[in-house]
Design brief:
The structure is a single chain. The chain is α/β, with parallel strands linked by helices and 308 residues long. It has a domain of 214 residues: Rossmann fold (3-Layer(aba) Sandwich), CATH 3.40.50. The chain is 31% helix and 22% strand. The strands form 3 sheets. Strands 5, 6, 7, 8, 9, 10, 13 and 14 form an 8-stranded mixed beta sheet that branches. α9 runs parallel beside α10. The chain is globular, with a radius of gyration of 19 Å.
Length: 308
Amino acid sequence: MTGQAESIPAPFRARYCPLVDDENAFLASLSRLLPKAFRINTLKSTREDVSERFAGYGIGLATVPWYEDAFVCDNPEAGFSLEHFTGAIYMQELVSMLPPLLIRDILPGARMVLDGCAAPGSKTTQLAALMGNRGTIIANDVSYSRIRALKFNLEKVGALNTVITNRDLMAFPDMDFDAVIIDAPCSAEGTIRKNWEVFDTWSARGVQTYARVQKQLIVKGFDLLAPGGTMVYSTCTFAPEENEAVVDELLKSRPDAKLEPIAIDGLKTSGTVESWDGAEFDPETRKAVRIWPHHNDTGGFFLAKVKK
């Protein structure tokens, strides 16, 4: 990454710096490369075995306080290791691991789980591991070209309880899922630390385009929940239009939707934006959380946990 904090576009600064607790730390974090991270694929290996192997390679690992099967690596060679190629580990950004963790307590007994925007499979493969290959996961993605990567990753990690579907989620047939994950396509502002080129196409207008789709996806995901089911809505963007405003739209259109508080031991989270561009959001949205890059040395993320 060649970008520096000084080269972050002024409109981006003006938009988001007022939302953070420490403007300088936030901007500085965006200019640092994202640490390499992976999780243990418990369908094939254990953290003890992988730790021993990496020690033999001379590759240092740091544990993650909020997820026992996640590690941060000080050497990019981890992505070229035998463990990666055989599926014993899965290279994955730390914040990307969060949505499945929010429902890990219900996964062992879950009958049907939907990953509505699944490709390339990071969360689907994690779900399969957390479920111990029991129950059934429907891994859906609208993009046929991305399905190839999803299929490859599922096969590599040994996920046996997963069915792939290639459909527009809005046309998905009525079903009752115990849990649904909607990791929505977004403007990806939170991924700047690994892809500075996000700034090349970034605009407030583009944010609005994503938000229109996201509002449809979150409502559809909720409608696919069985009574008593749980949905996780997430994005890797800072935009309130794609986060709080989307959850607010769900609450307006589905009165039986209730948010649950989110707390993950060892992970620093921040409160949500309560109003934006003249609009006040439903107080229920305050149960969602934001993750800013400078708080946990991660990418940016937003999470909402919804109960039906």
